[in-house]
């Protein structure tokens, strides 16, 4: 048995990357007999449509496999949700996974991190620096579909930067300023390190590459979809994508003298 993991790297002539590592919903067929969690419950905790948000004039890394098979934003020992405490109280598996399966999943994890590391190193070798938009979405209605959003503690866009080198503070401020205002003048609630500070991927890349680049872990509140049914709201999704598109000029201007 060989477990599949669906992913895609797309390379362009750019020092910038857009990652959507939680976009996927696929589970390998050989794992389905072990799976306890229902598809709709998986979808609610995945980040659907983030691959669309990542369609920027950047290099891209998109995962088509569900985080419930393997979560690349966790350390290796937490990348498989073996207990409900690791997965929002959800029982993911019907019974304990055989060691052979866990070993294959961990091998996939190591392989993917080797590929990510090589891709970022190639970017540094070519440009001298890199920026990653690590794009996610998050639930704000965990108490039910009719609950009210706590807007004090749930910004529309949360930028996780806690792992970044301090040299990137000016760029962070500039990006957040751009994200706060849409082209139609609409103002968005964009805050730093309120809901999320950046996951393992951010920590890993910063540890590996130091001040050669930074990772902006961008968490969109799921205003662009119904987090309980999965229905997407195309206009809102495009609004958020347009906000990200607006930041490309800011990145280009900031690094104009680095080339």
What do you see in this structure?
- The protein is of the alpha/beta class.
- It is built from six helices and seven strands; from the N terminus they run ββααβαββαβαβα.
- It has a seven-stranded mixed sheet, with helices on both faces.
- Strand 5, helix 4 (169-179) and strand 6 (190-192) form a beta-alpha-beta unit.
- Helix 4 runs antiparallel to helix 6 (234-254).
- The relative contact order is 0.17.
- The model has no long low-confidence stretch (mean pLDDT 95).
Helix and strand arrangement:
Blueprint: E1 7-10, E2 16-20, H1 39-45, H2 50-53, E3 59-63, H3 99-127, E4 130-138, E5 157-160, H4 169-179, E6 190-192, H5 200-209, E7 213-221, H6 234-254
Helix pairs in contact: 4-6
Quick summary:
The chain has helices at 39-45, 50-53, 99-127, 169-179, 200-209, 234-254; strands spanning 7-10, 16-20, 59-63, 130-138, 157-160, 190-192, 213-221.
Average pLDDT works out at 95
Termini separation: 47 Å
Count of distinct strands: 7
Task: Write down the overall geometry.
Answer: globular
How much strand?
A: 15-25%
Largest sheet: 7 strands, mixed
Low-confidence stretches: none
- Helix share of residues? 25-40%
Give me the Rg, rounded: 18 Å
What strand order characterises the main sheet? 1-3-2-4-7-5-6
Counting helices, strands and paired strands, the structural category is alpha/beta
Count of helical regions: 6
Order of helices and strands: EEHHEHEEHEHEH
Observed structural traits:
259 residues; alpha/beta; seven-stranded mixed sheet; 7 strands; 32% helix; globular
């Amino acid at each position: 048995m060989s477990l599949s993991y669906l992913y895609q790297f797309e390379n362009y002539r750019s020092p910038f990357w857009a990652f959507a590592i939680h976009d996927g919903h696929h589970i390998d067929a050989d794992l389905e007999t072990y799976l306890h969690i229902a598809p709709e419950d998986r979808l609610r905790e995945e980040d659907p449509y983030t691959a669309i948000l990542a369609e920027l004039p950047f290099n891209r890394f998109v995962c088509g496999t569900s985080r419930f098979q393997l979560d690349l934003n966790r350390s290796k020992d937490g990348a498989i949700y073996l207990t409900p405490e690791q997965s929002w109280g959800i029982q993911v598996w019907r019974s304990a996974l055989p060691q052979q399966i866990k070993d294959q999943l961990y091998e996939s994890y190591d392989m993917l991190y080797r590929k990510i590391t090589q891709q970022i190193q190639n970017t540094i070798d070519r440009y001298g620096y890199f920026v990653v938009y690590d794009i996610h979405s998050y639930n704000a209605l965990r108490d039910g579909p009719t609950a009210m959003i706590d807007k004090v503690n749930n910004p529309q866009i949360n930028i996780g930067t806690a792992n970044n080198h301090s040299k990137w503070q000016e760029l962070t401020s500039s990006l957040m300023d751009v994200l706060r205002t849409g082209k139609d003048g609409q103002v968005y609630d964009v805050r730093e390190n309120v809901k999320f500070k950046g996951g393992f991927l951010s920590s890993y890349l910063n540890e590996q590459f130091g001040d050669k680049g930074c990772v902006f872990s961008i968490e969109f509140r799921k205003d662009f979809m119904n987090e309980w049914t999965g229905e997407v709201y195309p206009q809102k999704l495009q609004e958020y994508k347009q906000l990200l598109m607006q930041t490309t000029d800011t990145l280009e201007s900031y690094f104009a003298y680095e080339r």
